[in-house]
Design a protein that fits this description.
- The protein has about 425 residues and is of the alpha/beta class.
- The chain has two domains: about 200 residues, Alpha-beta prism (UDP-n-acetylglucosamine1-carboxyvinyl-transferase, Chain); about 210 residues, Enolpyruvate transferase domain (UDP-n-acetylglucosamine1-carboxyvinyl-transferase, Chain), CATH 3.65.10.10.
- Helices cover about 30% and strands about 25% of the residues.
- The strands form seven sheets. Strands 23-25-1-26 form a four-stranded mixed sheet.
- Helix 4 runs parallel beside helix 6 and helix 6 runs parallel beside helix 7.
- The longest helix is centred in the middle third of the chain and has 14 residues.
- The chain is elongated.
- The structure holds uridine-diphosphate-N-acetylglucosamine (UD1).
- Uridine-diphosphate-N-acetylglucosamine (UD1) binds next to helix 5 and helix 6.
């Protein structure tokens, strides 16, 4: 069964993307705001009443789904103009996140901290999202328990209570993005000081910190792995206008497209300082990358060179880049090894790449990729957002036609990928 509002990928008339071997690419693509930031900013509007304004918002399905979830909670979303959102917190908050909405989007877990700290209770269906293995929330729960919450799990729902959360010293075993965000937002209205050690440092976390500080939160150590949050009173918070940080994963997608198709692109809006390690590795693969005032300029000529890569928490190479990197290595000169350190199950799209003629073998959390000069177009399926984008990039490097189904995954995270690639010379269409 398909979730309401999403197309059924098995239906005979389901939409797909058709891409043909293309290149060289030339021109400019503008990178919108980051999915992994805007969804968290949206959830954080639960903390205080009034109208918030967000700009640089990507036009993606997950924003609509988060909007539906917030409407059920008591925050009304509207889109006054392309790329802009208004979120009005009505002040009448229902601390319940129902199954039908939560199962569609991983970031729904981000309502947990704000609801609990604001309402003293929350009832949340266990979150869904991308299909790449177990995505536990034990660190979110343990952290909130240390702050005084009591949890109960029954019938697929998680219920938490705390009259008022209190500050705590929390040290993570692993710098989880979601757990850092949930504990940080909860700590904003807690009684006393919370420190989070080994906190995640992704640019999207910094964006959330900046948003919270503008609202009146007191946070030290922004951008570092130790965050100190001094609880404030709810009356000290006020709604704000905020510009979402650019999407580094979408930016990387256009760089990867240029790498396999050749040519040169201006990726406007991309923040090179948020992609330092990735850009170094792309340089090792033969891309000529220059940062300028508008974003990133990239030039590619000839086959990429193979490299070895391991995914790590920021500032390391993000797991979300990995399907793109494996696709680039599929047509690179030489042999590359990619090691996944975050989500061991996140190799499902490799079978699809193999259908296109890629020579990839996986063992545990490693993939060995022997580059071939050219892939060969075939029908393939997008299994999650990033894997779907990788199929599109692979199609650019394949002779003939690649037909990608399951593209509702791509729509969850990419703002007009087809239009943007077509505008720089890729032979691609939705059908
Ligand atoms: C977020 C991003 C996702 C990205 C990931 C890692 C969103 C909606 N998703 O996911 O695109 O791939 O960061 O950069 O923003 N873990 C636990 N227990 C927990 C929490 C996490 O064991 O309580 C483990 C996870 O299984 C995983 C690792 O920690 O192995 C990273 O998880 P986390 O950083 O929390 O990622 P998400 O916030 O789920």
């Amino acid at each position: 069964m398909t979730s309401p509002g999403l197309p059924d990928p098995t239906a005979p008339d389901a939409e797909c993307i058709v891409v043909r071997g293309s290149g060289p690419l030339a021109g400019t693509v503008v990178v919108p705001g980051a999915k992994n930031s805007v969804l968290k900013l949206m959830a954080t509007t639960i903390l205080c009443d009034g109208p918030f304004e967000l700009s640089n918002v990507p036009d993606i399905a997950d924003v609509s789904i988060m909007g539906d979830l917030l409407a059920a909670i008591g925050v009304e979303m509207s889109r006054p103009a392309p790329g802009e959102l208004t979120l009005v917190n009505t002040g009448v908050i229902t601390p319940v996140a129902p199954y039908e909405l939560v199962e569609r989007i991983r970031a729904s877990i981000n309502v947990l901290g704000p609801l609990l700290t604001r309402c003293g209770e929350v009832r949340l269906s266990m979150p869904g999202g991308d299909d790449f293995g177990a995505r536990p929330i034990d660190m979110h729960v343990a952290g909130l328990e240390a702050m005084g919450a009591e949890f109960k799990f029954s019938h697929g729902y998680l219920e938490a209570r705390a009259d008022r959360l209190h500050g705590a010293e929390i040290t993570f075993d692993f710098p989880s993005v979601g757990a850092t965000e949930n504990l940080m937002t909860a700590a904003v209205l807690a009684d006393g000081v919370t420190t989070i050690d080994n906190a995640a440092r992704e640019p999207e976390i910094t964006d959330l910190c900046d948003f919270l500080v503008a609202m009146g939160a007191r946070i030290d150590g922004i951008g570092t792995s130790t965050l100190t949050i001094r609880g404030v009173d709810q009356r000290d918070l006020s709604p704000v206008s905020h510009r979402t940080v650019p999407d580094r994963i979408q930016a990387a997608t256009y760089l990867a497209a240029c790498s396999v198709a050749g040519g040169s692109l201006d990726v406007v809006g991309a923040r090179a300082d948020h992609m330092t390690m990735l850009l170094e590795r792309f340089g090792d693969m033969g891309l000529q990358i220059d940062e300028n005032d508008d974003g990133i300029h990239v030039e590619a000529g000839g086959r990429p060179r193979s490299i070895d890569v391991a995914t790590l928490p920021y500032p390391g190479i993000a797991t979300d880049y990995k399907p793109l990197i494996i696709t680039m290595l599929s047509v690179a000169d030489g042999v590359g090894i990619v090691t996944e350190n975050l989500y061991p199950g996140r190799f499902r799209y490799v079978e699809e790449l193999q259908r296109l003629g890629a020579d990839v073998r996986t063992s545990g959390h490693h993939a060995v990729i022997r580059g071939v000069p050219r892939l060969s177009g075939a029908p393939v399926r997008a299994h999650d957002i990033r894997a779907g984008a990788a199929m599109v990039v692979a199609g650019l490097a394949a002779e003939g036609e690649t037909r990608i189904s399951g593209i509702h995954h791509i729509d969850r995270g990419y703002d007009d990928l087809v239009g943007r690639l077509s505008s720089v010379g890729a032979v691609i269409e939705r059908c």
